[in-house]
Design goal:
Blueprint (H helix, E strand, L loop, with lengths): L4 H16 L5 E2 L7 E2 L23 E3 L8 E8 L2 H4 L2 E9 L5 E2 L12 E2 L21 E10 L12 H8 L3 E11 L9
Parallel strand pairs: 2-9
Antiparallel strand pairs: 1-3, 3-6, 4-5, 4-8, 5-7, 8-9
Length: 190
């Protein structure tokens, strides 16, 4: 059976389009989506008995963003924190679209790879999980957003809410990753 040339051309174009646009995905070699984050990735705040980790940011990597992306933004939120009011652990933006991730520990300190916003504690860098003792595992949602904003379009120090408001009409696509973390005193039910 011979395929008509027009149909053959259509099938080739459709196959090329579907393989050219790879899925935009955020991953970490430190934990799988929905998996448990290591204690070293937990926060370390002197005087806070809930922050018993080492505050080493997990390595993060992502596939290329969609065409036309001019910058990326990344936020990390614990929706169960503050008794359900939520805690913003990290806000970063103006990430170059050619960047494909951050090494372990890289965003636990300022970096020229991103502009730091303000988390709940006002920090412009990664603050690891600090769930309240006895609250069980919390979900730490990392959300990577592809934008059409040129680097430098946003002022430094934006909160998560300010960033999301500034990205309205400029977000192209997002991908996410969730890590679980519990206070060291947490013991799962047997």
């Amino acid at each position: 059976m011979k395929i008509p040339a027009v149909l053959f051309g259509f099938l080739v174009a459709a196959a090329a389009t579907s393989t050219a646009a790879a899925e935009f995905m955020l991953t970490s070699p430190a934990f799988k989506d929905g998996g448990v984050m290591a204690k070293k990735h937990g926060g370390n705040v002197p005087g806070n008995a809930n922050c018993v980790g080492e505050n080493v940011s997990p390595a993060l990597s992502w596939t290329p963003p969609p065409d036309g992306t001019k910058s990326l933004a990344l936020v990390m939120v614990d929706p169960e924190g503050l008794s359900g009011l939520g805690v913003v652990h990290w806000v970063a933006y103006d990430i170059a679209p050619a960047t494909n991730g951050f090494a372990e520990g890289e965003v636990s300190k300022p970096s020229d790879k991103y502009v730091g916003g303000k988390g709940t504690r006002g920090e412009p860098i990664y603050l690891g999980p600090c769930p309240t003792a006895g609250s069980g595992p919390h979900h730490y949602a990392f959300t990577l957003i592809a934008t059409d904003l040129e680097p430098g379009a946003l002022k430094p120090g934006l909160t998560r809410d300010e960033l999301l408001a500034a990205l309205k009409g400029h977000a192209k696509m997002a991908t996410g990753l969730v890590g679980l973390y519990a206070h060291s005193s947490y013991k799962p039910a047997q």
